[in-house]
Design goal:
It contains ten helices and seven strands. With 274 residues, the chain is an alpha/beta fold. It has one domain (12-266): Rossmann fold (3-Layer(aba) Sandwich). It has a seven-stranded parallel beta sheet with strand order 3-2-1-4-5-6-7, sandwiched between helices. The longest helix is centred in the middle third of the chain and has 27 residues, at 122-148.
């Protein structure tokens, strides 16, 4: 199968991610789905993951099977993680087409503090937000390192290789109304920075994106009260939308290989805290 995406414009200049393969977890809705649409628009072939089969298949259909392949399953499952990183080259019929944009986006929220949140949901949240993130970083990093072994500085930077971790402003500025969720994003932030220091000298870019308030299905799944969120939107809005984060992500991965935006915090203009 050709690398020419079905949705590609004729102009190569309008298509900066041509020939790049992206892996995106948590792609069935919100930021993940928006990122898939944006990366496909710019030419990347995307391997997408989520637990829900139907939304995943719908996104594949929307973007075109020549542009997207789906892997249903738990982002913290070893088999799923390895398959995500294998599918791109098999789908494209060329073993040289390894994933070179890896986005650890899968995550879930939880309303409440360490004192008030639902303890029964802690383990699942930690598994998704921390363990799943760590496993994807580790597997992608291992493959990148094998690819980079023995190369000169010039060869290390012959093309961009990215790992993107989706953090949160509440991972840096812990808020009492969501401190259990914030603690998992604090962990993800730490994983990203540690991996950057370890992999950066090998020409591998590890980037942390820390969004502020983004309106999506995240709020309902996390259990935040609708009235509370509507009050927040009134106070600080307009809040961010998933395509806002997707545009930032595409800008980061479109930089030349020697340029690294390593930590980007993005908020609605009127958001004061967190």
């Amino acid at each position: 199968m050709s690398l020419e995406p079905v949705l590609a414009p004729a102009s190569a200049g309008a298509f900066p991610l041509r020939s790049r393969v992206a892996v995106i977890t948590g792609a069935t809705a919100g930021i993940g789905a928006a990122a898939v649409r944006e990366l496909v628009r710019l030419g990347a072939f995307c391997v997408i993951n989520g637990r829900r089969r139907e939304p995943l298949l719908e996104l594949v259909k929307e973007c075109g099977e020549g542009n997207v392949a789906g892997v249903v399953g738990d982002c913290a499952d070893d088999v799923v993680v390895r398959r995500l990183l294998d599918v791109g080259r098999y789908s494209l019929g060329n073993p040289k087409h390894e994933a070179c944009i890896v986005v650890a986006n899968a995550g879930r929220g939880l309303a409440g503090s360490v004192m008030t949140s639902d303890e029964k949901q802690w383990e699942e949240m930690v598994r998704t937000n921390v363990i799943g993130c760590a496993k994807l970083i580790r597997e992608a990093g291992k493959r990148y390192l094998v690819e980079q072994e023995g190369k000169s500085i010039e060869q290390l930077l012959d093309r961009p290789r990215d790992i993107i971790v989706m953090g949160s402003t509440v991972g840096r500025h812990i808020s009492p109304f969501s401190s259990m969720y914030g603690s998992t994003k604090f962990a993800a932030n730490s994983l990203a920075e540690a991996a950057r220091r370890e992999l950066g000298p090998k020409g591998i870019r590890v980037t942390l994106i820390e969004p502020g308030f983004v309106e999506s299905e995240f709020q309902a799944v996390a259990g935040y009260e609708t009235k509370w969120f509507e009050e927040v939107k009134t106070r600080i809005g307009p809040v961010l939308q998933p395509p806002d984060i997707a545009r930032l992500l595409s800008h980061i991965v479109s930089q030349p290989a020697h340029v690294h935006l390593s930590d980007v915090l993005i908020r609605p203009t009127r958001q004061d805290y967190p």
